[in-house]
Amino acid sequence: MQEFHWPHFSKKPTLIGENVTLRPFQSEDWLVMNEVINQPEIKRLTGSVTSTDAANKKQTSEEEYLTKQWYDTRNQQSNRLDLAIYANHSQEVIGEVVLNEWQESTNTCHYRMLISQDYQNQGLGTEATKLMLAYGFQELNLHRIELEVYEFNPKAKHVYETCGFLNEGTKREAFLFDKQWVDIHLMAMLESDFQSTK
């Protein structure tokens, strides 16, 4: 049986692209991220809530504290890689990319990304994803990167397809939002897929 080595998640790189830079979180970034993750549409599209009412609900002071604590500790994590998406032209943080849930048996990681609504539809998510894929396959030596995307988020699905992710199936009616069943699409990219897109 092939043995895989734990990826070097403790190293938090800076990955520079033409329009975005992926970098470790800094002390004040949590303030921006707190605004981004609390945008109602972001909460809906990421499956963070199960109703429109919950998406529009105002954040509590306790939730704000937990958000600060979360982003303050991202650089200390050795079992996952969280990087801020920094827009080069506006010089501000606009979202995040994450590789987590590494599976030793298959050398597979889960990927997720979110970008502020103010910066969507500009190709920034595509560039950020490509930067993260290159790092995952070339530096972390991953075999497979996978993700899930909700049926009501076709823009994200298009981004992932553009980057080379392939559809692997659908979890039918696997999520409930506003009492309506929603499908979840399973997508993945292999290291060999990545090499063929270069």
Automatic annotation (TrEMBL):
Start and end residues of each N-acetyltransferase domain: 20-183
Keyword Transferase appears in the UniProt entry: yes
Alphabetically ordered keywords of this record: Transferase
Keyword Cell cycle recorded: no
GO molecular function: acyltransferase activity, transferring groups other than amino-acyl groups
Name of the featured protein: GNAT family N-acetyltransferase
Organism expressing this protein natively: Vagococcus humatus
Record-annotated membrane-spanning stretches: none
Annotated Gene3D superfamilies: 3.40.630.30
